[in-house]
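Annex B, item 7. Sequence and structure tokens for protein A, then protein B.
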Amino acid sequence: MAETGNRHGLNAVMARVKVRGLNAIDRRTLAARELLAWRNELVTALGGQETISPQRAVLVEMVVRTRLFIDHMART
């Protein structure tokens, strides 16, 4: 029997983040605040927002999105 829908909600989260970026997450939640704090730590470790290259900035965003998806799956 084929499943009619997913139960984890990851597809919806991925679609929202793909369209709106990290602005799609609800910043009032603890998980979102922790994720954004971790992103800021990464950027600071790389020398700050003003000094990292555009390529590194894209890599940071990709890593943060991946962690968002993994954390979302771990919480469901």
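Protein B:
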Amino acid sequence: MRSILTGEGHSEYSPVGHTANLASRMQAIAPSGSIVVTEDTCGLVDGYFRIRLLGQVTLKGIAAPLNAYEVLGLGPLRMRFQRAAGRGLTRFVSREAEACA
């Protein structure tokens, strides 16, 4: 964040850096009224939202091409536990002593 003083003595903040640049570039390629996200974000929201791969895009200021995804709407998942179950839950290990007899 970069602090900018206004004429009235108030501070305003302007985001700077890689993340702000990437967000701005993704917003620029999004069709009107839609949301476009990167592969990293897609991995975090998959299942909570329906996603469609748009393909690789080359963005100014970003070294390598990125996969872009369009958010189409809500997906079937509503809770984190549903997402974890879909990925496969892990078994309890070394908890036999705590088991009810």
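Comment on protein B: The beta strands are 2-5, 11-14, 35-38, 49-57, 66-74.
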